[in-house]
Amino acid sequence: MLDPLVGVGPLRFGMSPEEVKAALDGAIAYVSQGVEGELSWQRYDGSEVTAIYGEGQRLVAVAVDGRPG
After folding, report:
1. Which of 19, 52, 49, 20 is nearest to 38 (CA)?
2. Which residues of 5-32 are buried (b: 16+ CB within 10 A; e: fewer)?
């Protein structure tokens, strides 16, 4: 469920990586990339979700891969 400018599904913009993990029922980030002080992202196992973090490691965007399911 998309809630523009608020979040996607259980994820809310502004969440920390720990809060995102908890919202995804403890999903493990199996790919994590980025540059400190800039955007970074984590892809979560089993959820087909990539969380994109901005300044202060806060959630700023969510990418969902709809192909697997």
Report:
1. 52
2. eebbeebeeebebeebbebbeebebeee
Please check whether residue 40 is in contact with residue 57, taking contact to mean a CB–CB distance below 8 angstroms. yes
Q: Which two tokens stand for residue 3?
A: 């809630």
The DSSP letter of residue 57 is G
Question: Three-state SS for 55?
Answer: helix
List pLDDT tens digits, range 4-52. 889 998 999 999 999 999 999 988 888 777 776 688 889 988 778 899 9
Say if CB 59 and CB 44 are below 8 A apart: no
